[in-house]
User: Fold these one by one.
Assistant:
Number 1:
Amino acid sequence: MSKECEAIHVLARKLERHNFPFSESHIPVNGIYILFEKGEHGHGGERIVRIGTHTGEKQLRSRLKQHFLNENKDRSIFRKHIGRSLLNQSNDPFLEFWELDLTTRKAKDKYAHLIDFEYQKSIEFRVSQHIQSNFSFCVFEVNDKTERLEMESKIISTVSWCKNCGPSENWLGNYSPKQKIAESGLWLVNELYKTPFDASGIEGFSEIIKG
C-alpha cells in the first residue's frame, strides 16, 4: 500500500491548504477533509493524520466547525480523541469523566452530578487551542453520500495499511488510551485496515481531486 499511500499524500498536499481561522467560502458544502499535523512527516512531506467526512447533506462546513470551534467533545469524536490524549499524557484522573457522553437526557440525568463542568470547560479550551494551533486541512468535493463514504473508507484503509509512514516519537496520539490510534498513527478508530485503493482506484481518486 506504500505506493498508493504516497500518491494520496502527494495529491492531497497539492490542494488548497486551510488553517484556523478558515474561510467557509473556500470549502464545499459536501466533501471529504484530510488533516495534517505539525511535526508529523511521511512520504517526503507532511503526513496525513485524519480523514473524515459527513453523513448529513451539505454538512461539511458544519463538521469542520464542530472539530475546530465548537467546544463540545460529544459532538466531535476528533475532539474527544485529542482530549483523551492530553489527559492521559498528564495522568489526569478527569479522563474517566471525559469519556462520558452526555448527549442524551438519560445520560445527563445519570452522570451530570459527577462532573466538574468548569474543569471540563477548561479542557475543551485546551483541546481547541491544540487543534487550532497544530492542524491544517485540505478538502475536496464529493456530492454523492454513498460515494463519499466509500472513498473516505478507502483513503483511511490505504493510509492505515502503509508501512512507510507513521507517527513520530513525540506524536500526541502515542498517549491515546485507544490502542488503534497509537498503532495506526491516525486520529481514527473506524475504517482502519479495510479495503484500500488499488492502482485504478488511485486514478479515480486523482480525477475527483483534480475536479
Note: The chain has one domain: 2-210.
Number 2:
Amino acid sequence: MKRIATLAVIAGVAAAMFASVQASAESAQLQITGTIVPAACRLAFAGGGVIDYGSIPASSLKPTAQTTLPDKSTQLTLTCEAPALFAFKVIDERAGTAVTSLTTVPTYDAKAKFGLGALGGKNIGAYSFQIANETSDQGATTHILSMTGGANWVGSASGVAGDGSRLVAFAGSPTGTVPSPHTSVTAEMRLVTAIDKGSNLPLTQKIPLDGLSTFELVYL
C-alpha cells in the first residue's frame, strides 16, 4: 500500500508540473510601435532648379588667370505644414572636379567651392553659394551655419560646404544666432562662378558646364 501511495503522489506532482508548463506556454505579446514625426517640410527652387550660363565664347576666357562669370541667382523656398525647426545641407555631386585654388567668394574655404565637371581630364572651374535676402513667415531672418551637426551655430563667413558637413538654418530675427521654428522661408541663392585659366582647358572643344548639387532637408 505504501508503494501505491508513493506512486500516486509522484504521478500527482508530475501532472501539476505539466499543467504549470502548459499554462506558461499559452501566452502572446502585443508590441506597440510608431514614430512621432515633425511637420512635413519641402524644398523647392524657382525655375526648376536650373542655372544656365548660356554660350560662353572661348575667346572671352583669360589665358593665364581665372575668369569670373557674372553672378546668377535663384530662389530657394522651404515650406512646412506647421512651424518646425529645420536646416539643410548641400552635397556636391561633382566634388572631385572643383578647382579649389580659384577665388569665388574671398572669405570662402576649399570646402565651399563646388565642381563644374571635367572634360578630357581637365577640371573646368568652381562655384560657391551666397545666401541673401532671407525672409520667413515671421518676417526678416538670417541664415546661420553649424559645423558640429547642430550643436553650435556661427555666422556664414566660411560658406556652405559641398560635403554636407555644414548645416544651414534660419534664425528668428536678422540678428539671431540660433535656429528658430518656421513655417516658410525663402532665400536668394547667388552663384559665384569661376572658370580656370584658358591654358588649362581644351578650348578647341565644346566644354559643358556640369555642376550639380543636392540640397537635403534636416530636422533639428
Note: Residues 1-11 have pLDDT under 50 and may be disordered.
